[in-house]
Amino acid sequence: MDFRASSVRSILDLPRRELTERFAEWDLSPVHVARLWSYLYWECVESWGEMEELPAKVLRRVEAEFHLPVPPVAREAHSADGFTRKFLLEQGDGRRIEAVLMRFTGRATACVSSQAGCAMGCTFCATGQMGFQRHLGPGEIVAQALHIQRILRREPAPRGEPVRLRNLVLMGMGEPLHNYDSVMTAVDILRDQSGLALGAARITLSTVGVVPGILRLAEEARPVHLAVSLHGATQADRAALVPAARKWPLDELMDACRVYTTKLSRKIFFEWTLIEGVNDSEDHAHAVGRLIRGMPAQVNLIPLNPTTGYDGAPSRREAARRFQDILAEGYGLPSTVRQRRGIDIAAGCGQLAAPEA
Ligand code: SAH
Ligand code: SF4
């Protein structure tokens, strides 16, 4: 079916609860919802025609009410080491977004986009450099995970890695807390036990620091890990790299993070893109330590990945190590240096942008 031509709703937009309500309105048994759901999210079928066990009247109804989008892959790139794959997926309106599959030994992670482009304008990020196009609907977020699950199932890994998607990071294009409702609906669908069944501990959402969104996550006790992009430990340093800091200042952001960790008794992650000569000195490390000391937190250091619109270099290995030592020894803060993945195909953090057709 050509879903571009269709104005009906995507079935991937609906959590199971909502689908069940619709079935009740149509006088159809909930048993059929269960079967439909497993076709969609367990067998990951790509067309209505594959749902052979659904009674004809059920099939007729869902076909009339919904479309089942399978976004075409406009372009695909494989990293030279074979572990990372990037997909440029075309949406119903022709917009293009990127999703990334990362295989690690023993696990697979999907990095998905929440928006086409991004409104936040971080200077060193390729998505920010392209500007905002539009929000993605829940189904458009879910479809990225489904695409990656299909790939994992179809193509057994060379070294026997698992065929099931285990981890999902909302760290692709866009700011997930700027598109809160769609992202949370997508998370509900992805976590559903009879479908993709992603564990709560296996989903991480990264935010530029949208304070109302963080407070809402805490209030609603959403089952995702939270990573907050810090990059600067004073208001002035941070605002120079992250324009959104002017709207949500550092002290308000830290207060919101404390509400989150206290209310949910949960650890929080802070991301820090390490840029040589900009935010990677020993003084910077101490400033980070002082800022988050005492919180249940972990710092993820990300050596800068190249983008065309920002002229900076990643920190050297020794600077990253020194940064980690200061955080650990001075402030008891654990940290990791994010593995550089897929840089040769521009699939690393902050490198996602969608070239025009
Ligand atoms: N919009 C969200 C998630 C997307 S990016 C956010 O900003 O948090 C995931 C992480 O990569 C963020 O911490 C982001 O600041 C960082 N990042 C962006 N551009 C980068 C680059 N060129 N090199 C390294 N990290 C980058
Ligand atoms: Fe948007 Fe995140 Fe990129 Fe900033 S780093 S421009 S918030 S995607």
In the CATH hierarchy, what is the architecture of the largest domain at level 2? Alpha-Beta Barrel
Shape: globular
The run of helices and strands is EHHHEEEEEEHEHEHEHEHHEHEHE
Query: Percent of residues in helical segments?
Result: 25-40%
Query: What small ligands are held by the chains?
Result: S-adenosyl-L-homocysteine, iron/sulfur cluster
The major pleated sheet works out as: 10 strands, mixed
Widest sheet: strand order? Answer: 3-4-5-6-9-10-11-12-13-14
> Considering the protein shown, what is the CATH homologous superfamily of the largest domain?
Aldolase class I
Low-confidence blocks of residues: 1-6
How would you characterize this protein structure?
The chain has helices at 16-25, 30-41, 56-65, 126-130, 138-154, 180-191, 211-219, 235-241, 250-264, 282-292, 317-331; strands at residues 9-10, 66-67, 73-78, 84-90, 96-104, 107-111, 115-117, 132-135, 167-170, 203-207, 225-229, 268-274, 297-303, 335-337. It is α/β, with parallel strands linked by helices and 357 residues long. The protein folds into two domains: 3-67, DNA polymerase, domain 1, CATH 1.10.150; 73-345, Alpha-Beta Barrel (TIM Barrel), CATH 3.20.20. Strands 3-4-5-6-9-10-11-12-13-14 form a ten-stranded mixed beta sheet. The protein has a two-stranded parallel sheet with strand order 1-2. Strands 7-8 form a two-stranded antiparallel ribbon. Helix 10 (282-292) packs parallel to helix 11 (317-331). The two termini are 22 Å apart. Residues 1-6 have low confidence and may be disordered. S-adenosyl-L-homocysteine is lined by residues 122, 124-125, 171, 175, 206-208, 229, 271, 273, 302, 304-305, 307, 349-350.
